[in-house]
Amino acid sequence: xxxxxxxxxxxxxxxxxxxxxxxxxxxxxxxxxxxxxxxxxxxxxxxxxxxxxxxxxxxxxxxxxxxxxxxxxxxxxxxxxxxxxxxxxxxxxxxxxxxxxxxxxxxxxxxxxxxxxxxxxxxxxxxxxxxxxxxxxxxxxxxxxxxxxxxxxxxxxxxxxxxxxxxxxxxxxxxxxxxxxxxxxxxxxxxxxxxxxxxxxxxxxxxxxxxxxxxxxxxxxxxxxxxxxxxxxxxxxxxxxxxxxxxxxxxxxxxxxxxxxxxxxxxxxxxxxxxxxxxxxxxxxxxxxxxxxxxxxxxxxxxxxxxxxxxxxxxxxxxxxxxxxxxxxxxxxxxxxxxxxxxxxxxxxxxxxxxxxxxxxxxxxxxxxxxxxxxxxxxxxxxxxxxxxxxxxxxxxxxxxxxxxxxxxxxxxxxxxxxxxxxxxxxxxxxxxxxxxxxxxxxxxxxxxxxxxxxxxxxxxxxxxxxxxxxxxxxxxxxxxxxxxxxxxxxxxxxxxxxxxxxxxxxxxxxxx
Length: 513
Ligand code: AHR
Description:
Layout: H1 2-10, E1 14-20, E2 35-37, E3 59-60, E4 63-64, H2 65-72, E5 79-81, E6 103-105, E7 111-113, H3 119-129, E8 133-137, H4 144-155, H5 161-168, E9 179-182, H6 195-208, H7 214-218, E10 224-227, H8 235-246, E11 256-263, H9 278-288, H10 290-305, E12 312-320, H11 339-354, E13 359-365, E14 375-378, E15 381-384, H12 386-393, E16 401-403, E17 405-407, E18 412-414, E19 417-419, E20 422-428, E21 434-440, E22 447-452, E23 460-461, E24 464-466, E25 486-487, E26 489-493, E27 496-501, E28 505-508, E29 510-512
Parallel strand pairs: 1-22, 2-5, 2-13, 5-8, 8-9, 9-10, 10-11, 11-12, 12-13
Antiparallel strand pairs: 1-17, 3-4, 6-7, 14-15, 16-20, 18-19, 20-21, 21-28, 21-29, 22-27, 23-29, 24-25, 24-28, 26-27
């Protein structure tokens, strides 16, 4: 009796007032911050996407149908491919035409690379899921000529030999290449370059690697070139590239600077992706919130050299990196995906949204079967991860206008770890609908959110919430829906939105005001 009373007292929901200031719209939350990353790594491409046309797994031209239909629901704005470290050893010619060379993938397990998923298959995949291409060119072991020819092969509408070869390989129309990465992690796996060396390569590549797709240029969708940016807190790299950008003249350009920042707590990745407790949940969330400092730091440097914010900060590798799952191959980066990852992804997406004026693109690592994945597959089986559900719940935020929300986040502590109890963002979509997202980080305490719209009366609200019994609840092939969204406990009272945010939950209630 006494125990029950204590328990119910401790679980009484605290009230958190919020003000959504609809009178102060901010920047557009670029749909590209919901981008994905698909590298030739482990079973991310082969099995995760590509099963081949002769597979018993239902597929369209070799690309599995179940995965395509799941990804379509996410409205994935762009897919970064072919890597990662893989990109700086990728030679595109091996992945076109009827005869594909079998090569090696030394970065990721030293396995053979059949090259059966190449340029045409990738373009077919993004076409099937309704996305756009973000290609990384090989700056590490390739040449400017090789990269320039790849772009000509893909984009030339004139009858050049390369364009004819593309047509002979099944695609007479030029492809759109809207985003181009100039190398990957050139400070490390991409060639261990100094900043000076990288900047001179950047100038050469952005000068000579051209997009010839006239229709793409005419429709105003010029290809954006994204320079390799810093590793986590390496401000010196950002300084060097942005300083070069400030002094640039007509013959080279860049429109984006990448940032790679994983949530790993410490290297090498040792945290388990499943079978952990509240302590590890809190430690990982504390580590992921470091993204705010990283984005602020690099944005401040970019503001110094580019006050007009012409160059986007592109967080093109982010997400949780845990210890490999027991029994899986070294180098395949296979991990489970739990409720913790759902909370972690909403916290990062909210950071990107709050910096929407500078962070205009991001790519979670990675799409399928690798690191913090949307989807896991096992031969013919497929499941949607908690992270997938968060990305699906956030779809209405794509290209919506950021609206400031003020609230006292409070805090809770676990040993030396101190975390805010709540996070939230708001936005208005093109149809005028107001969107609110509330993340309750606290693994034990529910919260009663009461949001007022600063003078405007809310009329109705509904929505979904994602939570689960345990911080490490996961979906498995045996229980695929253990973690899935349910209707949110939200209503409108006296023009205010009231919602119960369950412990460790992500809630998105669209509001009519
Ligand atoms: O996403 C896995 C790897 O992490 C990428 O290949 C590399 O760019 C980064 O170090």
